[in-house]
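Record format v2
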Amino acid sequence: MIPGSPRARSPGAGWVRPALRLGLMVLVCILLDSHLGPVPPIARFFSPFGGFWRNAESLHASDEKLSLRGLTEPVTVVFDKRRVPHIFAQNAHDAFFAQGFVTARDRLWQMEIQSLAGAGRLAEVLGPNLIEHDRFQRRLGIPQAAARSLEVMLRDEETATAVRAYADGVNAWIAGLDPEDYPIEYKLLGYAPGKWSALYTALMLKNMQWTLAGGGDDLPMSNTLARMGRDFTARFYPLRHPETPPVIPAGTAWDTAAPPPPAAPSGMTGRPVPPTLLPFGAGGQPPDSAALAPSLPAKSKDTASPSVPERNPDPGNGSNNFVISGAHTATGHPLLANDPHLDLSLPSIWYEIQLSAPGLSVYGASLPGSPAVIIGFNRKIAWGMTNGGDDVLDWYRVTFKDGSLSEYQYGGNWKPTRKEVEAIKVRGGTTVLDTIVYTHQGPVVLKDQEQPFTRNTPALHALHWLALEPSNELRAFLDIMRARDYADFAAALDPYHCPSQNFAFASVDGDIALFHHGLFPRKWKGQGRFTLDGSEPGNDWSGWLPRRYEPAARNPAQGWLASANQSPADSTYPFYLGAGYLDGPRARRVASLAAEAESLTVGGAFALMQDEYDLTAADLLPALLPRIARAPLSREDSAARNSLTAWDFRHRPDSKPAALFDQWWRLLYKATWSDEFGGDSVHYQWPSKDRTRKLILEEPDAEWFDDITTPAHETLSSLALRAFRDASASLRKRPGGPPDWAAYRPVVINHLAHIAPFGAMDVRAGGCADCVNSLKGAHGPSWRMVVDLSGEPSGYGIYPGGQSGNPGSPHYAEFVADWAAGKHYPLSFFSDPGMAGGEADYRLQLRGR
Amino acid sequence: MAGLLLLAGCWLGGYLFPWWWPALAACAIGAWLPRRAGMAALSGFLGAGAAWACSAAWQDFRNHHILSHRIAPLFHLPGPMGAIAATGLVGGLMGAAGAWAGYALREWLAPRALAIDPPPFVDARKAAADAAGSESSDGTDAARTGDTPEAPLAGPGGELGP
């Protein structure tokens, strides 16, 4: 022992100290690698070598050359300054392979999470909070339907090539990833991307069908019918809206050889009265207070944890499109415009792309997860879509023999149900089993005494839903992309079934057209408006409406066609397609602006889509303001009233009267109906705001304005005054005083997993729910596109997002500010890679291995 | 010196090894260079912390702070600088724990190594001045009792030296 050495002076330390310190070191590492609530493992996540910093994308991209297994010929991808990929391939297979590759490069996490959501597999990667989400998806039958649709897609050579090549492209990208390259959401949520399969494409498309054709008011309508009676229902929920021009111009001749529509079963009047109220979750039993427990789980506001996605499609999922013939445009050639209104999110639902291969040259908005372009234009034609809104989802009350749910009554007999067991894997290793019961109509989504999934899901009802039928919508898009004229386009729509859409079309030939297209069940008038008795065979759908009877128009004399989710046809149309159309002020305004268009330019078409004029306000204020004109008002209220008098009914971001009107109208609407529909927690369908507007204008003395819960007799005037004072006072109480429109209704573009800092919050923009620019808080124009069909089509567009799905990319939310400001970009449509010139940012050269 | 070596080791090894590399690298360096436990921990913290913070800062600079602006609020950090500092802190914690453990390992396994000449690139005088001016965090450590690095004891050593 050397004197003076430390060891010599502490002979007792031995192995204990190093062991303790090594243990401490390991403990520090374990602690830094733990999930603490929503917080990801800190050390992994913060590591600058493998964590989130690796997602901090450099601002300068450079050309790359890659060899990929699966490509048959070399492909050049030119990325323009907005990071839009322009794919130049030598065959369709390679074009879709490259589409899969570049889309995954930019949007992998979004693609996978949306497909897993469709598959009901979120709990597998995100944990037990998502079990109920997954159960609901599976009860709806979406994963099973996707698998059946995939079979159809794979039987068709074209779609099989497209989905397989796309999947190979996605997997080629995934194969090249090390964990440090994973999109940041994987790192934050702590899982890894799996292998992509063609089924994911089918799931993604099925989930779109849920978004656009998964709504249904059957349950609240039935509850309303039971409570308010037939007269009220007929009066306040009319099937026809003469004020609103239909999608297909009134007076269009229908196929005179149309077969008679099916008859309602004997004893049916078209409006079956359910035996009792159907509070959701109460299984059709007589309501009692214990059974009425409608409180849905509150949405998590936790910024770092994913919350349960909204499970009910937004009833405002709509859109505008219009086509103007050359007679009314500045160029003398048609203009086509389209803006689909969807939940706004980051990453955006859309991804711009150009696909070029022999026989294929198309530009437009694609859905990450699916090959093809969904809305866009090629060298000859342009097309755009709005939601059709037809009723293809019906609920059938099932009378089960006993609690085993093994037999149900049908046509006077007992029929056996079919049962399938679903295994929901949960992160952590457990598996939840769920038995799904099917009648011949479809799955029984909610059993008795279960926590309801959505407010519109009735218990012990079987779901008959078109989206559960196998179909191959992708084939339609593959053909549309190659269509050269009207005949090609009309034929291309054939395989498209669901969700029904208003397909607007324009061509360089000068044609304009609009097809209200989808697969429509043949129904008797009113069938499926309310929940149906599932034991009555006459309530089943009776086949499909042949395509030649669908409402469509080509080159009408009026010189324009427009749709905004309103009724497809006027009262002479012989078939019943549904009742949930949005026959409101937006449709009326779009139609009137399209009709007035003369010498329309591209800028004019964008201005039309961004119109902020509120037809409801323009109708109502002249009727309501006089009712409070002589009322004693405080100085502030009086000034507020004067501001409304001077308002031009436009929802501009800086308009204070716009905010005041909205608040006033909200409170007045609520005051009108809350007494009629109050007193219990049953889910009712209130008369629409548009119908209430009509009531105010046409029947201002109606009994409905009296609040039946008070002994006093209220009138429209007294309700309006009270609502006005409350509205004015509530706005004054806000910090900073009465807000302007953009502060009152901030636009929030949330991240898909509700990770707040990854979203765009408090975006200031104009527009309103009833405006053509139908921009609500988190819902609105998700892609604005105008195509000028003169000679070579030229497109213009913008969406509220950016091409990259990486929050660390300059291209992540690149377009949001311009979108909010009402700007748009010219869409570069290159004929060959060399044409890109200075517009190219960088190139990707792909070749087979 | 130990800190600088660790900085370089953490940075280069960061691309090759998993996230816990700073702990291991610091353990090795702690078992080699520092002459006092407190010094080991401090060098570990500063070396690994600087490696992580500098690497983060470089990536943040190239990114024009786009990502750090989005990440910082997730963890209630004050902007990009907060995200960089937090990164340094996490790396530093692992570095400190690793180096402290490494020093204790050497105490136990190769006590003589503590007495050998430091490698020629270590400025012995500076190390001595540091040692004299700082308290070890290790309360019972013999290192506190006054080694005399100015007159390093000769030993058979070299077993841990370069």
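Chain A touches chain B through 52 residues (CB under 8 Å).
The mean pLDDT of chain A is 90.
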